[in-house]
């Protein structure tokens, strides 16, 4: 399969930039990408962007966030949801970056995932959007679309990352998250995907197995 050609076709029909892509285009700042990705948990891009802008207008370095007043941090990031947990987390992470890494975010996957609350997706986002290093951050869009396309047959995002890294040429890794996040927001959306607008409908098996199994598991849990 020519993954480059497929990604090119999708990219052509997409509009605008997703939040992290936009951040990277405005100047690579690994610390901002790291904090913004932590803020992005369980919320939409628009909320993440608003919270990031508000926070960084006042606190834009590890030192400032590490020493910031927790209630003020909570207020600044309130729009991202779960703001108490997230404020504590960004403060902890900033302290470690400041004390253990001399205020500079490490450009290393293992060091990144050792930070509190930083998982594989966040570490890979920092590598891709903060440092321009090839990696495949697998969020809900990348996981869903890769399964629908039949590129992977996986249950969890971590499995998708491993499976994709085996089949996609490394020079295309850096594009996958950027393209699939926008594709997942604009066309291959979670509910009622817009197949009629899709530029790759002719090669898509529309495999919804993973989503159907997740739905069934949710229903089983509800009925227990
Ligand atoms: S055909 Fe439908 S399911 Fe397949 S990639 Fe396009 S929008 Fe998604």
Which SSEs are present, and which pair or pack?
Layout: H1 3-13, H2 19-25, H3 30-39, H4 45-58, H5 62-67, H6 70-77, H7 83-100, H8 109-113, H9 120-131, H10 140-148, H11 157-167, H12 170-186, H13 209-223
This protein binds iron/sulfur cluster.
The CATH architecture term of the largest domain is: Orthogonal Bundle
Total individual domains: 2
- Main sheet overview: none
Q: Averaging pLDDT over every residue, what do you get?
A: 97
Order of helices and strands: HHHHHHHHHHHHH
Helix content: 55-70%
Amino-to-carboxy terminus distance:
43 Å
CATH topology of the largest domain: Endonuclease III, domain 1
CATH superfamily of the largest domain: Hypothetical protein, domain 2
How many beta-strand elements?
0
Q: β content, as a range?
A: under 5%
Low-confidence stretches: none
What bound compounds does this protein have? iron/sulfur cluster
Number of helices: 13
The rounded Rg comes to 18 Å
Overall morphology: globular
**SS-based class:** mainly alpha
For the record, the CATH class of the largest domain is Mainly Alpha
